[in-house]
Amino acid sequence: MAATRRPMTLAAAVATAVALGASVLTLPALAADRGAEKPAPPKLELKDGTLQWGVKESFRKYVMGMAHGKIEAKGGATQAADNGVFTFSGGLGTYDTGTHATDTAFKGSVRFTSALHKFDISIADVKVRTQGKTGAIRADVTLNGAVQNDIDLARLDLSAVRPGQGGGEGGAMVFKDIPTTLTEKGAKAFNGMYEKGAQLDPATLTVTPGGPVPGKPTEPSTPTEPTKPAETPKPPKPSKPSKPSKPSKPSKPSERAEPRQPAGVVDGSLSWGLKESFRTYISTGGEATVAGGAKKISDGYRFPYAKADLDSGAKKIDASFGGSVRFTYKAHGIDMKFSDLKVRANGAKGTLLADVTTPKGTNNDVRFAALDLSGVSYRPKNDVVHLDKVPATLTAAGAEQFANDTTGSPYKPGEKLDPVTVALASKAGATLPEADGGEAGGTGTSGTGATGTGTTGSGSVGGGGTVGGGTGTLAATGS
Questions:
Q1: CA–CA dist 429, 439 (Å, integer)
Q2: CA separation (Å) from 7 to 4, 13, 36?
Q3: For residue 337, what are the contacts with CB-CB under 8 A and spacing of at least 6?
Q4: What pLDDT is recorded for position 446?
Q5: Whole-angstrom distance, CA of residue 177 vs CA of residue 160
Q6: What are the helix (H) ranges across 334-451?
Q7: Which helix (H) or strand (E) holds 324?
């Protein structure tokens, strides 16, 4: 029986390697088992492929919800009911037995548009390429008329995908729920709505292995004529000694260069109030609780220094801050905590990131606010770089944190947030600037109050969203 079953076992092994570009051990083990056979052909055909992928569920909800937009799948792509995932069909490709790499192209395109929020994004000519435990979803992406061809849109993590996951019709191999994350080029293609590394929807790949890819017949080579023996080269004439060059004058240092930041940052702070109207709304019946070293100040909250990299000359900052602030409003079903705040700045632009926690879970490193640093100076003064009152606006990812499934988000991308102030000291003992108005009196908070999980009556927020409940109370809090 073992002899009769062997071909099916080998076919399954090849199909697995074909579908995933799986372990390098797959085909060598096969060859060792059948050493008398000829080596496998260099490439095998893949056919009848499909790719099921929703890009990002929260983005689809945003487009069809608060953005009042439209999603259109066509040309071989379809979308599941109820704003579901997309299926790209007609996949054709190859599996390289030498490199264990796959390359499969699919039909169809998907277009996301919103006249209200002024975006038009199309994804077309989708391909999946894998090698070993990694891979990519590649596509042509058009953003508001500007085309980026054949970019790596998403990274695939195949490390946990195992052979034998499901089976399809006609010998098709199905590999479900492959984790995907956004690439740097993908983040740019989405106009910076999401940051590199953001988690995307899992992908399901289905392919059917076919026969060897037919190779082109090779033409017989023309015999070459024997080469003539080389002539003995004549010795070169000695060259005249060159005159010694004059030493160059040392160049003057640039007078306009910014001073480089002394190595290391030893202290700092971040002052920010999120959004004044939101704080005012919470104060009508809820509570804002600080913990982990964060303090209330008159115009928001001050978060303590954790770590930072600073280059004043290059105008770059990557700083992290401790502490947290938690907003609760039991009557309106609100429970949101902001922690692990970061500021990343490069020249005139920057980003404020935060971990946002609700009863549904934590979204890490949310690209919450865009920072306009065009009016600040990176020059240290008294060993402190002070970026004062940096204008901040809400990103699409930030707006999503306030959304619920019924009314969407009361805030839109681009809305003004409270300004951000960052201070970083490069020497111990350097005095950090005081926050405007100093600390607010009577915080009435405890270190444990903000770090517990807490509940908000029903334990959910807005029936499956984040804030605002079903009454739309938050929407009336102004801008």
A1: 21
A2: 7, 10, 15
A3: 324, 325, 326, 327, 356, 357, 358, 450
A4: 35
A5: 10
A6: 396-400
A7: strand 316-329
Partners of 439 in the β-ladder: 297
Place of tokens 């690209």: 367
Query: Does residue 100 contact residue 22 with C-beta atoms inside 8 Å?
Result: yes
Amino acid (one-letter) located at 32: A
Question: Within 13 A of 180's CA, how many CA atoms are on the CB side?
Answer: 28
HSE, CB side, 13 Å, CA atoms: give it for residue 331.
9
Residue 369 CA neighbour count, 13 Å, CB half: 25
Nearest to 180 by CA among 48, 85, 80: 85
Contact 150, 128 (CB under 8 A): no
CB 97 within 8 A of CB 83: no
Q: How far apart are CA 140 and CA 436, in angstroms?
A: 48
What pTM does this model have?
Answer: 0.46
- Among candidates 52, 430, 92, 123, which has minimal Cα distance to 261? 430
| Residue whose token pair is 């001073």 | 259
d(CA 22, CA 16): 7
Rounded to whole angstroms, the Cα distance separating 343 from 99 reads 42
Distance between CA atoms of 412 and 442, rounded to whole angstroms?
Answer: 33
Site of tokens 């801008």 = 479
Per-residue pLDDT at 238: 52
Q: What is the dihedral of CA 127, 129, 134, 136, to 10 degrees?
A: -30
Instruction: List the end-to-end C-alpha distance of the chain, in Å, as a whole number.
Output: 75
Cα 169 to Cα 166: distance, rounded to the nearest angstrom:
10
The answer to whether 439 and 374 are in contact (CB under 8 A) is: no
CB-CB neighbours of 469 under 10 Å? 22
The answer to whether the Cα torsion of 368, 373, 379, 382 is positive or negative is negative
Contact by Cβ (8 Å): 161, 175:
yes
Q: Do residues 69 and 113 lie in contact, with contact meaning Cβ atoms separated by under 8 Å?
A: yes
Alpha helices in 241-289 (DSSP H): 276-283
Asked whether the beta carbons of 328 and 334 are under 8 A apart, the reply is: yes
DSSP letters spanning 372-392 = E-TT-----BTTEEEEEEEEE
178 CB-contact burial (10 Å; exposed 0-12 / middle 13-18 / buried 19+): buried
DSSP secondary structure code for residue 157 in this structure: E
DSSP category for residue 199: B
Q: Give 440's contacts (C-beta < 8 A, 6+ positions apart).
A: 296, 297, 298
Kindly list the averaged pLDDT for each block of 10 residues, start to end, along the chain of length 479. 36 41 34 46 82 95 90 96 95 84 93 91 95 92 91 93 55 85 91 88 89 58 52 52 50 43 77 94 93 94 94 93 95 92 96 93 93 94 94 94 78 93 92 66 36 34 38 36
Report the residue count for the chain.
Answer: 479
